[in-house]
Amino acid sequence: MDGVALTRRLREIVPTSKKMVIISAYLTSSAVDWVKSIHPDSSSLCFVGRLNPGDLISGASELGSLRQILDYGWTLKYLSNLHAKIYLLDDYELFVGSANLTSNGLKLSGAGNIEAVLEKVAEEKDLIFIRKIIDSATAI
Q: How far apart, in whole angstroms, are the C-alpha atoms of residue 55 and residue 20?
């Protein structure tokens, strides 16, 4: 699926999810706002981003998005060598691909990027891999 289909699919299933993990090298305020708009209750949400200073300076990630995540009471972690883009809902629904949690990655406005994302049911090996990423990341 592309970024539009990913956004549409997340809009369908996120509102009823109890737990969500978003692993994305880049994070922007518009995308974090979008997550908040479709998942207004602050259930268990964990974000892992790369958050390198160069990414913030270039605008690939936005400092405001980090503040929003923390203000919403969600977990925020960073991993300096992160490149993965993974969305996991309720340890079951898994999306893996090229779409960062950004306006361009999710095609929230404008032309956006051309993305490719695979949806699948999470297997135990997937959950172990995702847990390794979360455990190796540093909390903010």
A: 24
- Give me the count of residues in the chain: 140
Angle between helix 29-38 and 3-13 (nearest 10): 40
CB 101 within 8 A of CB 36: no
Count each helix (H run) and each strand (E run) in the chain, helices first. Answer: 5, 7
User: Which residue in this structure is represented by tokens 């309720």?
Assistant: 90
Rounded-to-integer distance, Cα 27 and Cα 68, Å: 11
What is the pLDDT at residue 43? 65
What's the pLDDT tens digit per position in 30-47? 999 999 999 877 668 999
- CA 55 to each of CA 27, 35, 44, 132: distance values in angstroms, whole numbers, following the listed order: 10, 21, 26, 23
Rounded to the nearest 10 degrees, the angle between the axes of helix 29-38 and helix 63-71 is 30
